[in-house]
Design brief:
heterodimer; A: 619 residues; alpha/beta; seven-stranded mixed beta sheet; 61% helix; elongated; B: 596 residues; six-stranded mixed beta sheet; four-stranded antiparallel beta sheet; 12 strands; 65% helix; 10% strand
């Protein structure tokens, strides 16, 4: 809720003026029964027609003022509610952008979408009603009681008793239904989830002919939702009848005491009518208040859920001071320890025990940069355990990679390849050990700097709706067309892009549905290349490519050698065969580390992988 | 769809008629609701009359008729009890109608989704469809709830009040009757104006939802490219448009209440004037004046409510329209009445097949292929050459534009879709798992399969060992898209899913792309076992798979460029040979460069 108030503060003027004008309107409403009482007590009793005319004119005047105040109030309320909802959407969207991968894993995309859409819509209508009615209704209720006291003390006592009873009913029902609405909302989430899932897996559902079962599953969840709604309805429906009952009992009491008092000359008939009018005004306002409370309860529940997301703080803290961190290790760091290039893991077959294997002089690495011998990426005894996971996904990973090298990462399914490379751009934080990039721990980089130096191509090729150009410019807003084409050429995507009507401006639909898997993968590689990263990570990102395209791509990427430190995660030994070094992962540990030939002779795991793919050709 | 529809009354009425069709099954409840509404309104209207009578017993000092007053007060108590019950039942009944209708509507929409052609689903963003089935139905049902409760009571109150007023005094009633249409007029005017704004708001909301969907799903990509700020600013521009549209919609619609209330105040003043003047002349009693005044203020309420309902209904109709446009979309072409259940022997014949996604861009043209039972067809070719499209056609996810595909001699358009699809076991590149347990996922193609069968399938797919290590083994719940599993693990589950059903034909679209080769080699044998005697279409990237195929289809730009087995094709020295050799050319270059 506090977040909500923060946003309302931006509309302080509106959110104060709206109830203010509503109260003025209410005030004029409260005068009406008094005027009517005068008409009866003075006008009719004294048969004074002129008095009647003037008092009725006053009623019209009160109505005009009421109308004006109310229009002004509606405007301010609408402005504050809509504006606040819009701000809230903005903040939530912005907040989600700051969440780390592990928080997003935990919250779930689907939940976040509900929060951003239907929850905030509820909040909007809640605020709107709140501003218009929340002050007005209690004001009328109390005002009517005060007016009653000015008419007659004894009769007013009836007001003093019935108002707390009414309040008890209204708030009691509100308290009971609050948590019930919460449950209904979570059932709605379930319904939403099934629809999304069915849409995404529509091909599989149809392939297995499970349309009927899926429909049934949905109907079940839908039924649960409806029965939840009905259950809340049963209780909240009590509100109106019960308040009506209390008010009518009060009217009976007023008439009863009124009869006695008129008989003894303390009250006039018009006064009793005014008292009854006040009572029915109270009823009308309470009905409004009851409806309001239902709406506001819903809205508060929704706001709470939005706030819960806003309260999720990213575990990861990035130093925001870019000025400090940009002085990173690029310059003058001619590292002495060439032998950095080593892996140590007790159970690994260490093909590179002798440092000279690591950096053999015959390496055709251009020595253009003095920073060449810099360590680009270093893992020192790194372990990773995902939150809520039982076991470590990575254990004691220890290696370092000099700048400009090409590193292959190979290993079985679930062996930790992706987890390993995800630590480099700090998508997750290592739970033990230190990951350093260019000699500095990743935790000391600002988010922007770290991510801009690392290009990541993920397993799942994900594009956004727009054009090819807009997708390529995702990481480099100001890239020129030449740069885009260059990246496309390198990623072997230039040909098919050229073939599309519009070229770079060819449309890309949501998730790149209008492109094939291979096209998407190459575009995601090009997208990463456009940013000209110092470190490029390809996480199994050529899996959808046929072998010819894959080979061409690999050859084309070789121009980066020496300039860009390249990590290639792959299942295909052929893709990694010529890497400067290969990390063989097995069950979260490094099982082998070295060059292809060395691993082939020394590392059993690697040999198995290799032979499974190349046994025949190389036999 | 693309054309923005102009607000038309006819369309509204058509939508309304559709809504009524969904309400029809609840006829009896609707009738009960009308009865409860009538009783509740009549008893509510009776109370002011009783009050007026009581007041007339207490006009002058020392002249109060206490017996009369008490009698009236008891009657008020009884009538209040009746109101109480009828109001509560009314509310319960209306809840039931509304929630049931929106439940049915959601069911109908989801039912529809399962019959829609994939061309529709591929063309509509998931978020948009989801928002139709959830948010739009919700707004619609809220509107309907309000509509039901208030429209009925509103009309009945108006009629009841008129009857009661006429029975007391005709001239004063005329004042009320003449002035109140102004209220309706104002309400209708405002409703007409705000509908357009509501519609615009609905459209922008859909747009924003689609954007949110896309960005949140791609959050990892967004973050890794530091795209956060720009995505936020894109979002803000949609958000701002939505804000402006919402402000108009909300403000204009909220004018209804003050305007009608104003007119009601005028009516109240008018009744006060005529009533008081008439009372001076002895035409009515003070008690009757109090009845009129209370009616005048109650008479205000139904108009307020009806006008509120009108705007709310407009809004909910706009949403209903979007839901119906989904429900009314064309389903897949119906199966002919005499569609037979296919019992496939694995003979597949494509003759002169042509297909295109976009009218102006032919993709597959004149494709001929004759596959004999048990043959293994490897489909190779550069990415984007139409391999996936071929699968879409085989499974009849899309229908051919020209030519025909037949299985076992039957044109696939003449057999039931379910029997056709059940004849294929499909493992796609994009792994989809449903939320549910591992067991449920593997048994997806054969619900009710025994534990042992599922485990055997998992073993055959080499998924058993990792499943065992999951926290709850086969009962581990996989959530939303299976995020906790690796891509390869998901693929193993997808394979196990097919292993369990073992249909006569197989479609494997790069089925093992995410599985490491060690695991793959293990399941190769299982695959080989599975493929024996089964016609298999394999979109293949791995040489070993391709070489062992009976027929290699080399595709290029939607055509079958070449067709034959490995040796034939290599001998021919055509496109396939160059594709095949390119793998090693690439290696050679690297070999030289890196000095090995």
């Amino acid at each position: 809720m506090k977040g909500l108030f923060k946003h309302l503060k931006k509309y302080r003027k509106e959110s104060l003026l709206a109830p203010f004008f509503k109260m003025i309107e209410a005030l004029f409403d409260l005068f009406v029964p008094l005027v009517v009482a005068d008409i009866i007590n003075i006008g009719i009793m004294a048969e004074d027609k002129r008095y009647i005319y003037s008092r009725c004119g006053m009623l019209v005047l009160l109505a005009v003022i009421g109308l004006l105040c109310s229009i002004i109030a509606q405007y301010f309320a609408a402005k504050a509610a809509v504006g606040c909802a819009s701000e809230l959407r903005h903040s939530l969207f912005a907040h989600i952008q700051t969440l780390g991968f592990s928080e997003i894993d935990g919250l779930g995309t689907e939940t976040l979408i509900t929060r951003m859409t239907s929850d905030i819509n509820q909040v909007q209508s809640g605020i709107n009603l709140f501003l218009r009615l929340f002050l007005r209704s209690p004001f009328v209720v109390l005002g009517a009681m005060i007016m009653a006291f000015t008419i007659n003390f004894r009769s007013a006592a009836i007001f003093a008793v019935s108002i707390p009873v009414l309040a008890l009913i209204v708030f009691g029902i509100m308290l009971i239904t609050g948590p019930m609405y919460k449950r209904v909302q979570s059932r709605l989430d379930a319904v939403l989830g099934i629809i999304r899932e069915n849409l995404q897996g529509v091909r599989v559902v149809r392939a297995f002919g499970r349309e009927k079962d899926e429909t049934e599953r949905f109907e079940e969840a839908n039924l649960k939702l409806a029965s939840g709604q009905l259950r809340v309805g049963r209780i909240s429906s009590l509100m109106n009848p019960m308040t009506y009952l209390v008010v009518n009992l009060a009217v009976i009491a007023i008439l009863n005491t009124g009869a006695v008092q008129i008989n003894s000359g303390i009250l006039w008939t018009g006064d009793v009518i005014a008292l009854i009018n006040y009572m029915s005004q109270i009823l009308i306002e309470l009905v409004k208040l009851a409806n309001l409370i239902i709406q506001v309860t819903k809205a508060v529940a929704c706001a709470g859920r939005v706030q819960a997301v806003l309260d999720v703080n990213p575990e990861m803290n990035f130093p925001s001071d870019i000025g400090l961190s940009s002085s990173a290790s690029f310059t003058g760091r001619v590292s002495s320890d060439v032998s950095d290039f080593s892996a140590s893991n007790d159970d690994s077959c260490r093909a590179n025990d002798s440092p000279e294997i690591g950096i053999s002089s015959e390496k055709h690495v251009p020595h253009e940069s003095s920073g060449f011998s810099d360590t680009a990426v270093q893992f020192s005894h790194v372990g990773l355990r995902y939150s809520m996971a039982g076991a470590e996904s990575l254990t004691d990973i220890d290696f370092s990679v000099p700048r400009g090298y090409t590193v292959g990462v190979i290993g079985g399914t679930g062996s930790g390849k992706t987890s390993l490379v995800n630590l480099i751009p700090r998508f997750y934080d290592a739970t033990s050990g230190i990951v350093s990039v260019f000699g500095k721990p990743v935790s000391e980089y600002s988010r922007e700097e770290l991510r801009s130096r690392i290009g990541m191509v993920m397993q799942r090729a994900q594009l956004f709706s727009g054009t090819i150009r807009s997708n390529l410019k995702l990481g480099a807003e100001n890239a020129s067309d030449e740069q885009l084409w260059e990246a496309l050429e390198t990623a072997k995507a230039a040909d098919f892009v050229r073939g599309k009507p519009g070229g770079l401006d060819a449309p890309v639909s949501q998730n790149g549905r209008n492109l094939s898997g291979g096209q998407k993968q190459r575009l995601t590689i090009a997208r990463a290349l456009v940013t000209q990263p110092d470190i490029l990570i390809l996480d199994d990102s050529s899996s959808a490519l046929d072998f010819a395209t894959d080979a061409a791509l690999r050859q084309s990427l070789s121009v980066l050698h020496g300039r860009t430190t390249l990590f290639i995660v792959s299942q295909r030994a052929s893709s990694l065969r010529h890497a400067d070094m290969i990390i063989v992962m097995d069950d979260g540990k490094i099982a082998g580390f070295g060059k292809h030939d060395e691993l082939l002779s020394d590392c059993l795991v690697y040999r198995e992988i290799y032979e499974s793919q190349f046994g025949i050709e190389n036999g | 769809m693309a054309k923005s529809k102009k607000y038309s009354r006819g369309e509204n009425i058509r939508t309304l008629r559709r809504v009524l069709k969904y309400i029809a099954p609840y006829r009896i409840l609707v009738a009960a609701s009308v009865v409860c509404a009538a009783v509740s309104v009549a008893s509510q209207l009776y109370v002011p009359i009783l009050t007026g009578d009581a007041i007339d017993y207490m006009i002058y000092r020392n002249n109060v008729n206490f017996d009369g007053v008490v009698r009236k007060l008891i009657t008020i108590g009884v009538v209040t009890g009746v109101t109480l019950l009828s109001q509560y039942f009314l509310s319960l009944i209306n809840n039931r109608i509304t929630y049931s209708v929106s439940k049915n509507l959601r069911n109908a929409a989801v039912c529809k989704i399962h019959t829609l052609p994939l061309s529709y689903l591929d063309a509509h963003p998931t978020g948009d469809i989801v928002s139709r089935v959830t948010a739009d139905v919700e707004v619609f049902s809220d509107g309907l709830l309000m509509g039901f409760t208030q429209l009925f009571t509103g009309f009945i109150t108006i009629i009841g009040t008129l009857v009661f007023m006429l029975s007391v005094n005709i001239p004063i009633t005329l004042v009320v009757v003449v002035l109140t249409p102004l209220s309706l007029f104002a309400a209708a005017f405002i409703a007409g104006r705000s509908y357009r704004h509501f519609q615009k708001q609905t459209i922008l909301r859909g747009e924003e939802t689609a954007y949110i969907n896309e960005m949140l799903e791609g959050q990892r990509v967004v973050q890794s490219f530091g795209y956060e700020k720009r995505s936020l600013s894109d979002f803000d521009s949609i958000n701002k448009k939505l804000r402006d549209a919402s402000l108009k919609a909300v403000f204009f619609s909220s004018l209804t209440n003050p305007s009608t209330r104003f007119i009601n105040s005028l009516v109240y003043a008018g009744v006060g004037l005529c009533g008081a003047l008439s009372a001076v002349g002895g035409g009515i009693t003070v008690g009757q004046l109090s009845v009129f005044l209370s009616y005048a203020s109650q008479y205000a309420k139904p108009f307020n409510e009806i006008s509120g309902v009108v705007t709310e209904l407009q809004n909910s109709l706009a949403c209903a329209e979007r839901v119906f446009s989904l429900i009314d979309a064309d389903s897949e072409i119906a199966e002919p009445w005499d569609a037979e259940k296919l019992s496939a022997d694995g003979h597949v014949c494509l003759s002169d097949v042509s297909f295109r996604y976009i009218k102006s861009r032919p993709l597959i043209d004149g494709l001929n292929l004759d596959v004999k039972p048990g043959q293994r067809i490897a489909i190779v070719g550069p990415t984007g050459c139409g391999k996936t499209t071929l699968i879409n056609l085989l499974m009849r996810f899309y229908d051919v534009d020209g030519g025909s595909i037949s299985v076992s001699g039957y044109d696939i358009r003449k057999v039931t879709r379910s029997s056709l699809r059940a004849s294929y076991g499909m493992v796609l590149q994009e792994t989809w798992l449903k939320s549910g347990t591992v067991y449920e996922n593997i048994a997806y193609g054969r619900p009710g399969a025994s534990r042992d069968e599922v485990e055997a399938a998992a073993r055959a797919a080499h998924a058993h060992s990792f499943i065992k290590r999951l926290p709850n083994g086969y009962d581990t719940v996989i959530s939303e898209g299976g995020d906790a599993l690796s891509q390869g693990q998901k693929q193993l589950l997808c394979i196990a899913r097919v292993m369990l059903v073992l249909p006569p034909m197989l479609i494997l679209d790069e089925a093992t792309s995410s599985i490491d080769t060690r695991t793959e080699i293990k399941i190769q044998s299982a695959f080989a076992e599975m493929m024996r005697g089964r016609t298999s279409f394999i979109v293949a990237h791995r040489l070993s798979t391709i070489r062992e195929a009976d027929v290699i289809l080399v595709m290029r730009d939607g055509h079958i460029e070449e067709q034959g087995n490995h040796n034939e094709l290599m001998r021919r020295g055509g496109f396939y040979a160059s594709l095949y050799n390119s793998q090693f050319e690439g290696n050679d270059v690297r070999d030289i460069r890196s000095g090995i």
